Amino acid sequence: MRTFKNILYNLNIILAGMFIVFQILDLYNPTMRFIGNSVTIYLMFAFCVLSIYNAVTLLIYNRKKENWKKAGK
């Protein structure tokens, strides 16, 4: 399970990097339409879902860690 989470975290970083590159390329050459085509829309959806999942798992981990600390005292 830990390996799966690490893969998801890395995918999130890769997608964020891709969107930064797409934005820069779109600024230099808007006729290529890197932002706004159908592939980019699906990638943006995947990025949003991964970001939400990563945030939720981090919140759950932090709550469990906080509860462990309280139980240990």
Compile the SSE list and pairings.
Blueprint: H1 2-28, H2 38-72
Describe this structure in words.
The protein is mainly α and 73 residues long. It has one domain. The chain is built from 2 helices and no strands. It has helices spanning 2-28, 38-72. Helix 1 crosses helix 2. The two termini are 29 Å apart. The mean pLDDT is 89.
Give me a quick take on this structure.
This protein has helices at 2-28, 38-72. With 73 residues, the chain is an all-alpha fold.
Helical stretch tally: 2
| SSE arrangement, N to C | HH
Structural class per helix/strand content? mainly alpha
Low-confidence stretches: none
Helix content: over 70%
Query: Describe the biggest sheet?
Result: none
Based on CA inertia axes, which overall geometry fits? elongated
Ends apart, CA distance between termini:
29 Å
Number of strands: 0
Number of domains: 1
Q: What percentage of amino acids are in beta strands?
A: under 5%
Query: Average pLDDT across residues?
Result: 89
Rg over alpha carbons = 17 Å
Identify the notable features of this structure and list them briefly.
single chain; 73 residues; mainly alpha
